[in-house]
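seq as requested:
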Amino acid sequence: MRSSSRPDFPSKPVRPDRRTPMAQDLNKHLERARRSLEKNKLREAVTEYQAVLEEAPTNTEALQALADIYTRLSEPALAAQYYGIQFDRLVEGGDGAKASAIFLRFLRPFPQPPDRLMRYGTLLQKQNRTSEAIEQFTMAATLFQTEQRGIEALACYEAMAVLDPENPQRHIVLGEAAEALRIADLATRSFLRAGQLLLGSNALDSAVEYFGRAHQISPQDRIATLLFAEGKLRKGDAESAALLLEPMAAHETESSFLALYGEALLRTGRLDQAKEQFEAYYKQKPEGFTKFFELAAAYVRMNEDAKAAAVLVQTKETMRTLRKDGEFAIQADRLATTYPDSLPVAEVVAKLYEELNRETKYFDALVRLFDLYLIADQLKHACETLDRLVDIDPYDYRNQERIAKLEGRADPAFLQNIMARAAKAASFSTRTDGFTGAGRDPSTNPTAVPEEVRAQQALEDLIVQVEIFLQYSLQSKAVERLERIAELFPGEEDKNERLRALYERANWWPKGARKGGAKPSPMAQPAPAAPPPQQPAQRLEAYETPAAAVPSAADTHRDLAAIAEINRLMYRQGTPREVLTATASGVGKHLMATRCLIAVGAAGDGMQLTSEYSSPGVPTVGPGSISKVVGLISQVTPDSLGGFELHAASMSSLREVGLESALGVMLTDKETQAQSGALLIGDSKARKWKPNESFFLQAVGDQLVLSVNHTRLRSLVRSLAVADEKTGLLSRGAYVDCLLVESNRARAQNTPISLIVLHVDRGGELLRQHGDTAVDHYIEQLARALASSVRQTDIAVKYTAWSLVFILPDTGIDNALNLADKLRQTAATVRPTWGTPDLTISAVVAEASARPGDETEDRVTEWINRAESGLEEARQRGGDTLVALLTP
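struct tokens:
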């Protein structure tokens, strides 16, 4: 028996002739339609296929056949109805390629419902056919809006905003549609994006409008509030920006808010509140600190100079901990220049330069401070400032003017003391009668300058020149000046400690003088009678530079700073031609010349190098003209300082390059003493050249020759593969050869030579901990950082994986110790990639021995061994030390 709960199933498969009546009817219609197609009876086939669709609307064969038949009957509109149904089914089935082909071929010419247009747009979007997709979405959105189907239209607008994201109009339309449907989040985001794009295209007013609409829709939205406030601030409406941001201030700590709110408060004059915001901001981002300087300027404008000074002092301490004293000095100096009448700001700047030991800047700051103290009637501080000014530069002619300003207002005893210390410049009318007028002979000329003062000024000028030459290792020129001093001022070293120190530094003494300035023993053989000493007037006559032409201390300081800067620029250049270009530009700009022309090498020689600087608007002249003009120097007699003056009145060739007057110096190779070129500056107008300008050209010219030779030598060394590839320094293989060559040169020229070994403490341990790559990278950084601290003539060698050696020609132990300390300070600023905070640097300083009996090889061997023993001593001390080794 069969269970009554289970249906009857046939035990065998159903046969074709046992089908249901509906299936039988469909098959009959399909068979008749096929036969009609075979007989080309298209209308009868249409009737049969339509009958099939009435019973089975999704029949694929009928749909495809009807679409094809109507196409054959030239009735495309009816065919499109059936192709549309096929398109929809293909899209639902995921066959986008066929669906796109059908739409493009059969449906595009006829109006389509918005849903189908939207589907086709989506297909095109997936195929990256952006412009076509936007076209379909636009038509679909328009139809959806007509049918009041807002949600579907919004989907089309959103798709278009995705396809064209940089078009603000797309986001505006999307935002307005979302706003109409009360979809606040989407509307807010769309208006914000539109505003940002408009802001990027400098349409500020429109951008602020849409930021405002976003803020109106979502007043609690943080991003909308910040952007709206920023837009208001950019439009100059700082008050509105501050009002927008004020409710958020109590709980906001993010840096972008702090910067924006602080700026709004600064512009509205709420400076104390702005200060709090900027302090919080810079705690998170300690860089730049420009807002503190703007805040200080705002305090000055509101006559709250004391608060401005307090901000500067606080900023100075913060930047000092970050080793950014130089950046602070630039900003503070700019502020003091902008507000020259602010006494508190001037005090901060003066204190800064005193702490930084920048004497020239400190002097200029004190000059400004003195005037401000006088204006403020703070005579005590004015006197103290004058006292410091005289300490720094007793020969500044303006000291007399300052003393005159204090006469009758300050203590006469103080002013007498200052007058006694202040040297009178030879070209300035000085007082000789004190401050009461008593004791002066009425017949005496009150403006006469005593001969002793003129003599002292001449001596001072020569001493300054010697100091500059020694600073830049120009030994031969330093000795020339010392010989002139010995001639004009015999025996001066016995009473002038400064001059005696220069004799020692230059390792040169006048004939008959005892080294170290020691006086001859009473038992010593009496020396031949010396010629009678010259009187001051005779000395000044022998010293050919006119007193009125003696450069001021300020000029000397400026020249020194320019020589140092040009020297640094030379060192950074990689080729001799780049060295010449940098030098010509630096010299021309410093001396404010129309042209600066340089030629190194013989004229007509294929190896001659030329370079030129032309002031703005002046055309260049080319190598041929450069060689011709600098060649004119050989036709002129040099002045007492070695300079050659040329004037167009006597040399018409100058006018060919647009010059009326020129000043030049010959370039001389320091080793061979042969002429190696010329350096010339010229002006398009008649110009009286100063002695300090001639002196400046000589100092730069000597450094230029050294730099060119040094650059050529380094190129040769690299070509011989003795340079370390990563650091650019000479490798250990060149170390001994360099010591031998430099030691021979030092012995031949009778000059000192020293070396510094800069050693990373616990280098082997660091190598094991962090690997070769990390340590090599640190040494590369270290080498780059130290490069600008050494001279062109110094030689840097990579000694070991964690130590560097610097060979210092013309350098004694004292100067080498100063440089070693400077190198250690610079090295302390270099941070390794592994971030070890306790990494330390030691330095060993050793001067080569000068025993006359030693061979060069023995001398160098002893020198190397002594340096190695110094490294061992540094290790025993625990590192982070400076070891100065005695010279045997």
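The chain is about 60% helix and 5% strand.
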